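Reproducibility note. Readers wishing to regenerate the assembly model reported in the main text can use the exact inputs given here. Chain order matters: entities are listed in the order in which they were concatenated for prediction.
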Amino acid sequence: MWVYEKKLQYPIKIKNPNPAMAKIIISQYGGPDGELGASLRYLSQRYSMPYPELKAILTDIGTEELAHLEMIGAMVYQLTRNLSPEEIKAAGMDAYFVDHTTGVYPSSAAGTPFTAAYIQSKGDVLTDLHENLAAEQKAFQ
Amino acid sequence: MTQRQKLMQQIAAYDFAIVELNLYLDTHPNDTAAKRRLSDSEHKSRQLRAEYEAKYGPIVFRDSPDTRMLWIKNPWPWDLCEEGD
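Running the prediction on these inputs yields the following structure tokens for the assembly.
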């Protein structure tokens, strides 16, 4: 189980809204190499890990990825505050806006909704750890 | 930066050290130097959290009649403006 802390892992205070930036950053929320995928990948794989150290570290990293998810959500939220229809259009955010207004929806920058197809959980320790190395490399790029 | 934000920033710094040291100790549970650093950071974080919670309301919810309203109260962590601060 989890216990919520009413704080962000690192405080987010964005003074100037920037919908064009939000459109890019949303990929780190629900895109192919985003935080939602990262957290679900680790938290799903941990059940079949054969060593206690790996159950511990996947639980703890998966939990930290959820904290990252929350920070990215806060960034998207703050970047899309108080926008006029003109600003939304000029930033190219109109396609997002028509379906979600300024709600934070897990999707990639190109608008593909989040899918569990971004992650893998194979029940084999070496396969899953290779999946994770590749995932972190992609997220880092 | 408000006093509240400054305090939260300090808490975040110690908590970041706690998270990272915990991850390291998951696979290196016998490293006594890391364990000492972890317990120092936990001690500092506990002190700062107590100060923050006394001034601004709970970070982790524990039920009591006066914390219930403070738990619900804005700002939530993603909010930009801090009402009454």
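We highlight two features of this model. Residues 3-72 of chain B form one domain. Chain B has a mean pLDDT of 92.
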